[in-house]
Design brief:
The complex is a heterodimer of chains A (497) and B (478).
Chain A lengths: L6 E3 L2 E3 L4 E4 L5 E4 L6 H4 L4 H5 L7 H13 L7 H13 L4 H9 L7 H9 L3 H5 L2 E4 L5 E8 L1 E5 L6 H13 L2 E5 L7 H12 L4 H4 L1 E4 L6 H7 L7 E5 L2 H7 L8 E5 L3 E6 L7 H16 L9 E6 L5 H19 L14 H11 L5 E7 L2 E6 L15 E6 L3 H5 L6 E7 L1 H14 L3 E4 L18 H4 L1 E8 L19 H6 L4
Parallel strand pairs in A: 7-8, 7-10, 8-9, 10-11, 12-13, 12-17, 13-16, 15-16, 17-18
Antiparallel strand pairs in A: 1-2, 3-4, 5-6, 6-19, 14-15
Helix pairs in contact in A: 4-5, 4-9, 13-14
Chain B lengths: L11 H7 L11 H4 L4 H19 L4 H10 L15 E2 L9 H4 L3 H9 L17 H11 L5 E4 L5 E4 L3 H15 L20 E3 L2 E3 L3 H13 L4 E2 L2 E3 L2 H15 L10 H4 L2 H25 L6 E4 L1 H13 L11 E5 L10 H9 L6 E5 L8 E2 L6 E2 L4 E6 L12 E10 L8 E11 L12 E2 L4 E2 H5 L17 H7 L1
Parallel strand pairs in B: 1-15, 4-6, 4-8, 5-7, 8-9, 9-10
Antiparallel strand pairs in B: 2-3, 10-11, 12-16, 13-14, 14-15, 15-16, 15-17
Helix pairs in contact in B: 8-9, 13-14
C-alpha cells in the first residue's frame, strides 16, 4: 500500500517524497518537503495569477464543475479509489460508510445542486456587479472577489474537500488546502482529477493541496503572511487554531468553523402512544447513528421531557432501550459498529457503570451506547461521545432542555414539529445555529444552507464596491457651497453612514 | 555491556515477609531495592498482587464490579491482573455538577466505591466547600484524601489513608539517597537532623507534596519547609474544571460560585500580586541564609535554572553543603540552557547524582528517579505493564516495549493500586541498565500519550471550543 501524499500546486503534481510523518493507528506516510515548494503553492503575482479567473463567466465555472463531477465516479476514478484505500488506514470512519460517502460525491456536482449553492449568494452577484443606489444618490456596484486563502480543513469526512473546492471555484478564489492527517486522500484525488481534465484551466491552477505538519514554523511563518494570503479558513478548534493563532494580524483575516456538537430536544408528545414513542426512538437513533456519529451535526446529547420522578425515569429507561435497539437496527450501509472505539471514552463510560444510582448505561462499547442521566446531570465528556453513543437527559420541561443549548451546539433536532417552531428563537438566542426535524440531523447541507450560522460562500470573498458619485451628482466641496449653507456643505461630503 | 553492581543484596526472607505487607519494603535503601534480580522481584510481585486481590476484591466496590464484569476470580499470573487496572478517568468520574450543587453526599457515595473503608455513615450536611468535605473526611474517617487537577481542569480525588502519607514520605526520603556509595550522603535522622526543604508549591493543600511536607515537619520539626505560598485552595482549583463543564451546558454566566469562595477575592488578588516577589524572596532566602548548609530542594527544572542563574549573578560557587539535593519533575517545557548540568554543579555545589529528575503522579505512592544513564527505574513494589494505547491489550513482558504505561502499586493498602496512566513509555524488560540497578526500567523520556500516538494534526469539526478560562480571572471579574 502506497502512503505517499503528493503536493498538487498550480496544476502540477509534486512527488518528491522526502518527509515521513506519523499518522494515526501507528501508520506513517510520506510527503514532499513543503518548504521547498511554497513558491509553487502561493501566488507571486496576485493579478497575473487570479486575473484569468475573472475572465470566466459563472456558466463556464458551472460547466467546469459539472464536467469534473462526471469524472468523480468512485468506480472508475483511480485517484478516488486510492483515497478510499488510504482512508481505511487513517480515518476513524467505518470502511463501508466511507465507501458510501465516496459514492455520494458526484451529486454535489450536479447542475441543480450547484444552482442551490449559487443561490446562497445569488446568481447575479456571482455573475458580476449588483447595483443599488443609496438614499443620497450614490450608486454602488458590488461583487464578491475571491482572495488567496489557506483552508485548514477538517478530516472527519471526505466531503470537506469537496465543499472547499466548490466554494473556491464559484467565488473565483485561490485556495491552498492543508490536508488533515485523518483524511489524506480526497483533496489530492480531487486536484489530480482536475489536472487530468483540464491541466491549464484557471480553476485547476487555483486549487492547491499540500500536507504540512501543523506547527512547522519555518513553513507557516512564510505562508501565513499578509503579503502571501488574505484569509485563513480554519475548520475544527484547538488542533487547527493553536498553530495559527500567533500569525493572525492586521491584513490576515480568519474565518473559523468552530468545533460543534449537536443535540436533540424531545417533547412529552413522544409518549402519546407506543407507536409515537417507537418512531421518536427510531428517529433519534438515526440522528445518533447515521455516518457513525462522526459529524458535528450528529446528535450526542438528547433532552427528553419524560419527567424526572420515578415514573418519568421509568419512561426514560424504556425509551433509552428503544433508542439503543434502534441504533443496532440501522441499515448497515449507513451505520455500523465502530472499528476503533475511543479508549478514553470507553473508560469514562465504564466508570459511570459503577454509579448505578446516577447513570443507567446501555452498551457503551463499539456497538454504541445510551447513557441515561438519572440525576439529570449531563456527562462531563459529552464532546467526545462517538461510536454511536448518546447521553439522554430526562427533564421536566422544555425550558430545562434549553438551558443545555449554547454556542457550541450547531444542530438541534426537535420533536414534535410544533415545538421546533415554538422554540426556534430561544434556541438561537442560546447560541445554536440550526433547528431541524428530529431524524433529519444528518441531512444538513452546509454548501446550500448557512454554515454554522454564517454565509459560507460569502465569507470566502472580499466584497468589492465600485461607487459612482457622478451619475446622480453627489455634491462635493470644490463645486461651491449651496446658498444659505451653515455647515450644510460640510455635512454633504461627510459620509452619513 | 557489563552492568555495575551496588554490592547490596536483599535476603529472600525479607521479601517473603513482605508479601503480606509490601509496605515493609519502604525501609529498604535505594541500593537494596535495586539489587533484587528481575526473576526474584517478579516472584515476589505475583505473590503480593495475589494477596492484594484477595484482600480487596470484595471490599472495594468498583474492583468487585470490574472483576465481575471481567469474570476474574483469581490471579494466577502477573498478566492476569491487567484487565483489572483502573483507567485514569476513574478518580475523576464523578459529575462536576455535584460540586456545583454542593452535593457532597453523592460525592462521598462515589468515593465509597473506591476505598475499602466504609463511608456510608459520614454526614456531609455541613459541607459547603470542597475544603469542608476534605476536612470532614480527615476528621471522621481514616482517609486523608488528596486531589490533583486532571486534564481539562477537573479534579481527581484519591482515597488515601493517613498512614499512606507516612509511607509516601519515607519513599521520598529513599529517593534522595544516591544509588552508588556516596560518602557525603548521610541519611536524615528523626529527632536529630534539621535539614530545610525548599518547595516551589503550596505548603498546605490536598496535593500529595503538601501531605508530604506535613509529615516531614512532623518528623523533623515545624517550620523546616519553606514555600512561597502558604495554601492552595481546593475550591479555587476546582473552578477551572467547573467553568468548562458549565460552558458546555450553556451556563457559563450562571456558574454558581459559593460566596465563601468569592470572599477569597482579596486574598487571591494579594497572592497574584505578591507571588513573583514571594518566589524571589524565597530564592534570596535560600542563597543568603542557607548558603553553606545542607538543603533539599524540590521544584521544576525552571526553578533549578533560576537558582543557578541567581547564584551566578552573585558570583557564588558551591552554594550548598554536601548532601544537598535538588529534585525536579520530568515534563519540562522550554529550552534547556547551555551546559546547565555543569553550571548547576559549579554554582550550587551539587554532584550530578544530587540533581534528581523524578517521575511520579498522585496515583502512585512512590517516586521514580532517573539514573545517570537517563532511565527511570521501577522498584520491586511497583508492577509495571505496557499496554497498546488503542486496544488496551498488554504487550509481552519481554524485550523492549513501547506503549501506554500502567502499573500495580503494591504500597496501596486500602484502595486498589492498579492504574492505567496517560503516559507513553518504552520499558526495557531485560533490566540490564549500565547504571547497575536491577529490574525493568523505563528507557529515556516519559511523554504524554497523545504525543506518542501521532496524527496530532487530525482535525475534526465535532467537539467543543474548550475555551479555558483562568479560574482566578473569572472570580476576580465577579
Amino acid at each position: 500500500m502506497n502512503f505517499d501524499i503528493p503536493i498538487v500546486a498550480a496544476g502540477k503534481v509534486i512527488e518528491d517524497y522526502s518527509e515521513t510523518h506519523s499518522g494515526r493507528f501507528g501508520e506513517s506516510f510520506r510527503t514532499p518537503d513543503p518548504n521547498k515548494y511554497l513558491d509553487d503553492l502561493i501566488l507571486r503575482n496576485r493579478y497575473k495569477g487570479m486575473q484569468p479567473l475573472y475572465q470566466l463567466s459563472l456558466d463556464e465555472i458551472v460547466e467546469y464543475l459539472v464536467e469534473l463531477g462526471k469524472r468523480l465516479d468512485i468506480e472508475t476514478n483511480p485517484y478516488l479509489q486510492w483515497a478510499k484505500e488510504i482512508g481505511t488506514v487513517f480515518t476513524d470512519q467505518a470502511v463501508e460508510i466511507n465507501a458510501l460517502m465516496y459514492k455520494r460525491l458526484q451529486q454535489h456536482f450536479e447542475p441543480a445542486f450547484l444552482e442551490d449553492v449559487i443561490s446562497t449568494i445569488g446568481r447575479e452577484s456571482l455573475e458580476g456587479w449588483v447595483d443599488y443606489t443609496l438614499c443620497e444618490g450614490k450608486r454602488c456596484s458590488v461583487r464578491p472577489v475571491g482572495v488567496p486563502t489557506v483552508h485548514i480543513i477538517a478530516g472527519n469526512g471526505n466531503i470537506v474537500g469537496v465543499i472547499t473546492l466548490i466554494r473556491n471555484a464559484l467565488i473565483r478564489g485561490h485556495a491552498i488546502v492543508k490536508i488533515p492527517s485523518n483524511e489524506l486522500g480526497t483533496p489530492v484525488a480531487l486536484a489530480r482529477t482536475m489536472i487530468d481534465m483540464a491541466p491549464d484551466h484557471p480553476l485547476t491552477k487555483a486549487f492547491n493541496v499540500a500536507y504540512w505538519k501543523g506547527g512547522d514554523e519555518t513553513f507557516e511563518k512564510r505562508l501565513y503572511h499578509p503579503g502571501t494570503i488574505d484569509r485563513i479558513v480554519a475548520w475544527g478548534g484547538e488542533a487547527s487554531i493553536k498553530h495559527i493563532a500567533k500569525y493572525i494580524q492586521p491584513g490576515l483575516d480568519l474565518v473559523n468553523f468552530d468545533p460543534k456538537n449537536s443535540r436533540a430536544i424531545i417533547g412529552n408528545e413522544a409518549f402519546s402512544t407506543d407507536k409515537d414513542l417507537q418512531e421518536v426512538a427510531d428517529r433519534l437513533a438515526a440522528d445518533v447513528g447515521y455516518i457513525n456519529q462522526v459529524g458535528c451535526l450528529s446528535c450526542r446529547v438528547a433532552y427528553l421531557e419524560s419527567g424526572t420522578d420515578e415514573e418519568g425515569l421509568d419512561r426514560a429507561r424504556r425509551f433509552s432501550q428503544m433508542v439503543y435497539d434502534g441504533i443496532q437496527n440501522l441499515p448497515h450501509i449507513l451505520s455500523q459498529k465502530a472499528e476503533h472505539f475511543d479508549r478514553e471514552l470507553k473508560s469514562e463510560i465504564d466508570s459511570l457503570k459503577f454509579m448505578e444510582e446516577d447513570f443507567h448505561v446501555i452498551g457503551g462499547d463499539e456497538r454504541g451506547g445510551v447513557i441515561l442521566s438519572l440525576s439529570g446531570e449531563e456527562v462531563d465528556f459529552s464532546e467526545i461521545l462517538s461510536g454511536r453513543t448518546v447521553n439522554i437527559i430526562p427533564v421536566d420541561s422544555v425550558d430545562q432542555a434549553l438551558e443545555g443549548i449554547h454556542r457550541d451546539v450547531q444542530s438541534v433536532g426537535v420533536y414534535p414539529e410544533r415545538l421546533k417552531d415554538e422554540i426556534a428563537i430561544e434556541v438561537a438566542l442560546q447560541g445554536a445555529q440550526r433547528l431541524v426535524s428530529l431524524g433529519y440531523m444528518t441531512t444538513y447541507s452546509t454548501l446550500r444552507e448557512p454554515h454554522d450560522g454564517v454565509d459560507g460562500l460569502g465569507r470566502m470573498a472580499t466584497w468589492l464596491v465600485n461607487e459612482d458619485c457622478m451619475t446622480n451628482y453627489v455634491p462635493v466641496p470644490w463645486r461651491g457651497a449651496p446658498s444659505g449653507a451653515d455647515g450644510g456643505l460640510m455635512e454633504d461630503h461627510i459620509s452619513i453612514g | 555491556m557489563e552492568q555495575k553492581n551496588s554490592g547490596k543484596t536483599v535476603d529472600q526472607s525479607v521479601l517473603d515477609e513482605a508479601i503480606e505487607d509490601p509496605r515493609r519494603l519502604a525501609s529498604l535503601t535505594k541500593a537494596e531495592t535495586f539489587s533484587i534480580p528481575s526473576d526474584v522481584a517478579d516472584k515476589f510481585r505475583l505473590a503480593a498482587i495475589q494477596m492484594r486481590f484477595e484482600k480487596l476484591k470484595d471490599r472495594v466496590p468498583m474492583l468487585t464490579k470490574l472483576a465481575e464484569e471481567e469474570q476474574i476470580s483469581e490471579i494466577k499470573t502477573i498478566e492476569d491482573l491487567a484487565p483489572l487496572l483502573f483507567h485514569n478517568t476513574v478518580y475523576k468520574s464523578y459529575p462536576v455538577g455535584w460540586l456545583e450543587k454542593n452535593n457532597f453526599k453523592r460525592l462521598t457515595n462515589w468515593l465509597d466505591k473506591l476505598t475499602s473503608h466504609d463511608l456510608s455513615g459520614v454526614d456531609t450536611a455541613g459541607c459547603e466547600l470542597i475544603e469542608d468535605w476534605l476536612e470532614l473526611m480527615w476528621r471522621e474517617t481514616p482517609l486523608q484524601v488528596n486531589y490533583s487537577a486532571a486534564k481539562g481542569g477537573k479534579m481527581s480525588f484519591n482515597p488515601r489513608e493517613k498512614e499512606d502519607w507516612q509511607i509516601y514520605t519515607q519513599l521520598f526520603m529513599n529517593v534522595l539517597q544516591p544509588f552508588s556509595e556516596d560518602l557525603s550522603w548521610k541519611p536524615l535522622v528523626r529527632g536529630k537532623d534539621k535539614v530545610p526543604v525548599f518547595h516551589w508549591g503550596p505548603k498546605k493543600s490536598g496535593r500529595p507534596m503538601s501531605r508530604l511536607i506535613e509529615v516531614y515537619e512532623q518528623w523533623f520539626g515545624e517550620g523546616l519547609v519553606i514555600t512561597p505560598m502558604e495554601q492552595m485552595d481546593a475550591d479555587l482549583m476546582s473552578i477551572a474544571g467547573r467553568l468548562e463543564a458549565a460552558a458546555k451546558k450553556g451556563e457559563k454566566g450562571k456558574l454558581t460560585v459559593n460566596p465563601r469562595v468569592l470572599k477569597m477575592k482579596e486574598q487571591i488578588l494579594k497572592v497574584r500580586e505578591d507571588m513573583p516577589k514571594l518566589e524571589e524572596a524565597m530564592f534570596q532566602d535560600l542563597v543568603t541564609n542557607y548558603r553553606g548548609q545542607r538543603v533539599i530542594m524540590f521544584g521544576t527544572r525552571g526553578h533549578l535554572f533560576k537558582l543557578v542563574e541567581g547564584c551566578e549573578k552573585r558570583k557564588l560557587k558551591s552554594a550548598f553543603a554536601p548532601g544537598s539535593v535538588f529534585l525536579y519533575g520530568s515534563f519540562f517545557m522550554g529550552e534547556e540552557p547551555e551546559n546547565w548540568e555543569e553550571r548547576t554543579r559549579e554554582a550550587l555545589g551539587l554532584k550530578k547524582e544530587s540533581m534528581m529528575e523524578v517521575y511520579g503522579m498522585s496515583e502512585v505512592l512512590n517516586f521514580f528517579d532517573r539514573c545517570e544513564d537517563g532511565h527511570y527505574h521501577l522498584p520491586v513494589t511497583l508492577v509495571p505493564y505496557v499496554l497498546n494505547p488503542e486496544s488496551g491489550d498488554q504487550y509481552p513482558r519481554k524485550g523492549v516495549q513501547t506503549g501506554q504505561f500502567a502499573f500495580f502499586d503494591l504500597m496501596a493498602d486500602s484502595y486498589w493500586g492498579g492504574f492505567v496512566t496517560g503516559d507513553g513509555v518504552t520499558v526495557n524488560w531485560e533490566g540490564r541498565c549500565p547504571c547497575g540497578r536491577h529490574g525493568a526500567f523505563i528507557e529515556g523520556d516519559v511523554v504524554p500519550l497523545s504525543q506518542m500516538e501521532g496524527g496530532d494534526d487530525k482535525i475534526n469539526c465535532a467537539g467543543s471550543t474548550k475555551a479555558h478560562e483562568n479560574a482566578i480571572e473569572y472570580i476576580l471579574e465577579m
